[in-house]
Design goal:
Two copies of one chain form a homodimer. The first copy, chain A, is mainly beta and 274 residues long. Chain A is 14% helix and 38% strand. Chain A has five helices and 13 strands. Chain A has a twelve-stranded antiparallel beta sheet. In chain A, strand 11 and strand 12 form a beta hairpin. In chain A, helix 2 packs antiparallel against helix 3. Chain A starts with 9 loop residues before the first helix and ends with a strand. The interface between A and B is large, with 64 and 64 residues.
Chain lengths: 274, 274
């Protein structure tokens, strides 16, 4: 009973995997990241990415992650199978499956890459935002436990506020966000945070409708050293809807450092009921 | 020798698959859609989607398509394996692999869905554009055969034109595009067209650097009937780069009808050399 390890951050506990046979892991959903029904999709995606991060054959850092939420995930245990689809000189392609009761409940494709210095430029516009300290922190949503795992400071597009008070783009949210308690940024936390924007249809319609992500693609624009250099400061997140039609819509998000470095862009398609 | 069938459109010939065993098909790259090296990625993605379209277990219309270009594809024959990962009441998740010489050269995940009428709205801005007849058609690129398979009328961001003459967003292309010869729009042609925007780094830097798509995600915002209603009129395409860093960049594209209906949004990450 002389455990000198500090307790793991709740995110690390949520995405933890135990290696079993080659390519096989087991994991467990985390009550801390519970959603209204089942687990928060952001930590499920990060867990699938973690199977790649932990894999002994991994080459380089994550470049892309596409997560398909194929079926409802039950609270409890799951198994994860991660396999290399193809390895090139500087890129590697992955397929990862999450199974419960012998059925695929979620799966992901990912690319890892060895990155090297090249010309660098940003064409997306850094969103206007007051510094985090000037924006009040929002309380967690009582029915979505995972929202308590993030410090969220909404600049615009806060949930539940009438459209008439929002101004600007009809489905945009801008917020400062970081893990709560703070945790140094890495690919796992960044991947999870990219899914922390609530469904745009709720903001757009200002009324409740069942909605849930069916697929999420994230592009990472930094390597591990660049993320590590960021530390645990908040990120500026901005998300907008593009088109809502026939039961589905898409939304795109950007994650920026306070200094204006675009660390990730993310896109998802979301089911909605009416 | 009494063949009364009209000859297939070159696109249909390019994406054609011959069913073999269950879930298995064979196909062949098309010289008409050759690129500088190997085949045009757009028709490869459309071929993988065609494996889903032809599958006897398919439920509904394509909603998402993510293609991973895992390795160079050689001109010639390939085999395709398509399997259902999960079927729900109104959505279905797919994994499709393209193999050459027993190795995975490309693979895709896709979601098909039964769509139903709901509230509908578009938040993306319809790009400003003169009508197609007022925009001259660009000649095909002599070293990229596939460019002759599209009628392309560049409004801005044409390849090879100096940045000083472009104006506007530094990495945006706007163009009217349709199959050449014209062909009624469907999911296959729309999927291929979403990859017809040349790498943004070439426009941004106005110099030649090797570049190629490594992954492409497309979201379809219409069902089969809505695409069929479009016919063979040109689409207005707009694409922009977001961030270029450490050997990769991402670009996002929108495909609109002349009447302002957003039919698809598409995102890709692209390798570049320097």
């Amino acid at each position: 009973m002389h455990d000198t390890q500090p307790p793991a951050h709740i995110l690390d506990a949520a995405v933890a995997l135990t290696p079993q046979a080659a390519n096989h892991y087991t994991g467990h959903t985390s009550p801390a990241y519970g959603n209204m029904v089942g687990p928060f999709g952001g930590t499920i995606g990060a867990t699938l990415l973690n199977a790649v991060m932990l894999h002994p054959e991994r080459l380089g850092d994550p470049l892309t992650l596409t997560v398909n939420f194929a079926a409802p995930i039950a609270d409890g245990a799951f198994s994860v199978l991660a396999r290399v689809m193809r390895t090139n000189r500087s890129t590697q392609h992955w397929m990862v499956e999450l199974q419960q009761d012998g059925q695929v409940a979620a799966f992901a494709t990912a690319i890892t890459a060895i990155r090297r210095d090249t010309w660098s430029e940003t064409d997306a516009d850094f969103p206007l935002a007051p510094p985090p300290a000037q924006v009040p922190q929002s309380p967690a949503h009582p029915r979505a436990a995972w929202t308590a795992c993030y410090e969220m400071r909404f600049i615009s597009g806060m949930p539940g506020q009438p459209a008439s008070e929002q101004g600007g783009h009809p489905s945009e949210t801008r917020l400062w966000i970081r893990d709560q308690p703070p945790r140094p940024l890495d690919f796992l936390s960044l991947a999870a945070m990219c899914d922390a924007f609530y469904p745009r249809v709720l903001l757009r319609r200002q009324s409740w409708t069942p909605a849930g992500t069916v697929a999420l693609t994230t592009y990472f624009h930094a390597d591990a050293a660049q993320l590590q250099a960021h530390g645990d400061a908040p990120l500026l997140g901005a998300a907008r809807g593009l088109r809502f039609n026939k039961g589905f819509f898409d939304q795109s998000a950007e994650m920026w450092t306070p200094a204006g470095v675009l660390l990730a862009t993310s896109h998802q398609v979301v089911y909605f009921k009416e």
